[in-house]
Amino acid sequence: MITLAREARGYSQADLAEVSGVSRQSISRFELDDLQLSEGFINNIISALKFADSLYYNQAEVLPPAMYRKRDNVPAKLLAKTNALINVYSFGIGRLLHSIDYKIRNVPSYPTSIPDKSRESAEIAAAFTRKMWNPKGGVITNLTKVLEENGFLTLPVDFETERIDSRSVLIDDKYPVIFYNKKLLGDRLRFTLAYELGHIIMHTRNPLTRWDDSHEANVFAAEFLMPKEEILKDLDNDLDVEKLAVLKSKWLVSMHALLYRAEDLKVITENQKRYIINRFNQLQIRRREPKELDVAIERGQLLRDLITKYRSKQKMNVKQIAEFFYMNEDEFLSTFS
After folding, report:
1. In the chain, how many domains are there?
2. Disulfide check for 34: which of 29, 207, 307, 329 has CB 3.0–4.6 Å away?
């Protein structure tokens, strides 16, 4: 837990040695279980890391490094910090859900395991989930609300970079939580949530899953948000930037996502896609689509409501609820408020 807390602060062993006054060699040997430090030295380390003391006696299983929705070239140290923080957040959320006896709701499972049919399997999984959750069809206008209605928790997180979009976890193999970058724009957020939904449904409980199943998750997200049977009614081979802008307002996904969906469904050719991407570049909207087309940013309420109700029932002040989540007050408020 000390190693986890150190990584969550973004500290190397040398960094922790500097802020705690304990030698780097002693910290290294202690983390390897090769040295027993005095109580005073341990208290120095704990004080420097600024988590609640209860964290270090927590018996929860540490989540292994996992697949993030991210762009290339994220520094390993930042990924380690992000993974450690998500562990700490998961400990607290799991503790809350156990305390309130949170009922597992509608979390489908549709494992995929045949590599040469991964696209077909992901599309079937998405259609299966849509039928369960959105039987009337059409655009899912508020994906976060649909997720929460089916027992999923979401939490916006400061990943300290725009290169990491999200990570999903299944706490205790039953409670689905999606952590996502609080800086995401509305269209990318929706696709990210659908992507992580696909991971949970297809991969998290699948012993045959491969390390990198991002392609399947992307296919799932595209079919879930833009189902083939319905999106084809809006696509044609005369697709251009102006039509994509209109469709973005309807389907609430990026123009890029619509463009790639049109190519995947063979509505347009790769050359047509390339031409439109060049138009994006000419109009300087490839990295940032026009602000007037921005999709509303969805923010979940379920986790916050659960915390508020539990805190009220237990008559906890801010310090007490923060310690319940293994945090100091400021960090708790900035994370969960």
Report:
1. 3
2. 29
- Domain span including residue 305: 60-224+301-337
**Pair 287, 305 in one domain:** no
CATH number of the domain that 8 lies in?
1.10.260.40
Phi, psi of 137 (to 5 degrees): 75, -170
DSSP state of 203: I
Of 106-115, 133-142, 199-208, 277-286, minimum mean pLDDT range: 106-115
Q: Is residue 55 part of a domain?
A: no
Residue 131 lies in a domain: yes
Kind and range of the H or E run holding 171? strand 164-171
Residue type at 195 in one-letter notation:
Y
In one letter, which amino acid is 186?
Answer: G
Same domain, 197 and 234: no
| Same domain? 160 vs 15 | no
Instruction: Establish if 130 belongs to a structural domain.
Output: yes
Tokens coding 93? 């959320």
Residue 105 has pLDDT above 90, yes or no: no
> Cα–Cα distance between 54 and 52 in angstroms, integer?
5
Whether 169 contacts 63, CB under 8 Å: yes
- What pTM value is reported for the model? 0.92
What does the alpha-carbon distance between residue 228 and residue 95 come to, in Å, rounded to a whole number?
Answer: 40
Query: pLDDT tens-digit profile of 129-165?
Result: 999 888 788 899 999 999 999 999 999 999 999 999 9
Q: What is the 3-state secondary structure (H, E, C) of 218-282?
A: HHHHHHHHCCHHHHCCCCCCCCCHHHHHHHHHHHCCCHHHHHHHHHHCCCCCHHHHHHHHHHHHH
Query: What are 166's strand-pairing partners?
Result: 69, 180
What are φ and ψ of residue 170, in 5° steps?
-120, 90
Residues 167 and 66 sit within 8 Å (Cβ to Cβ): yes
